[in-house]
Amino acid sequence: MRIFGRVRQRPSTDWRLATNRAFTLIDDGRYEDAGALLTRAADLEPWLSESWFNLALLHKFRHDWEQARSAGLRAVALLERDTGAPDWWNVGIAATALQDWPLARRAWQAYGLTVPGAGTVADEPLGMDLGGAAVRLSPEGEAEVVWGRRLDPARIEIQNIPLPSSGRRWGEVVLHDGVPHGERATGSAVFPVFDEIELWAPSAIPTWVVLIEAATPRDRDALERLAADAGYAAEDWSSSVRLLCRSCSESRMPTEEGDGGAVRHDPHDHSEPGSPGPLGHVAAADGLWTPERECGLAAPEPLVRGLLDGWVADSPDTRDWRDLEEVC
Predict the structure, then answer these.
(1) Of 149, 211, 267, 301, which is most buried, counting CB atoms within 10 Å of its CB?
(2) Other Cβ atoms closer than 10 A to 227
(3) Domain 2-111 part of CATH 1.25.40.10
(4) At what angle do helices 49-62 and 65-77 cross, to 10 degrees?
């Protein structure tokens, strides 16, 4: 088979050595040195889609989306199959990061996905509504897994209230990678856990932490409903947060909820797989209710104290709050 006038052959030894060395450097975080080697590999074998796929992958790791899109398009131009190639998925991520919606639609369709409204509102964001999933925030740091709503194959809207260590807020949209690292099982349903790449759309709603006194779980639930009815969120971190080691977090873990909604955080450490997670929020033992709860709140400053006061006013004998603090 001839490509660009040349007979296609297996990659040369120099190409393989440069590429293998480049990915070793990528694992060590040496992106600049890896880029030089992958560029050399592409110069050696420019007719190989793998040459440009590898460069697109590197640029994705560096969040250089213009270069990722350019290299990705060169990769797909050399593909020998019509659908399902990961090259198209990387193009879709880069296009989404750049808000290049016509290219994003083209990429997802070329990968083999059904894209609603393709060709009719090409300059508007995709609205695919792919259901619930989980996303690992800050995967290279103090990682935390939260539930979210998939807007399209590369974006998730956060529906939990993340812990302040993540630097993320309720309602933010994050760009995520395409290969899941872990699963969350809820009865018969299994939801993938994707790794965050970067923040795509920030939220103006701050995160607060507050200590509440809730005599019963119903009192706690009333605060969460009150916040939701106002268009915001409250979450009992004392019961919704659990600690996992890295190995557990990246495997299939059961949750207690069944709808993929905003139900569970899974923060864990970055120690060796199988080691215990750090100390932090731990749910009380089954059947034992502790009235003092640490709660996260996502609401504007002018509203947050009114929400808490209104919650207490509905049942002053069983509810109270103190130590409200904005944390993110």
Answers:
(1) 267
(2) 23
(3) yes
(4) 160
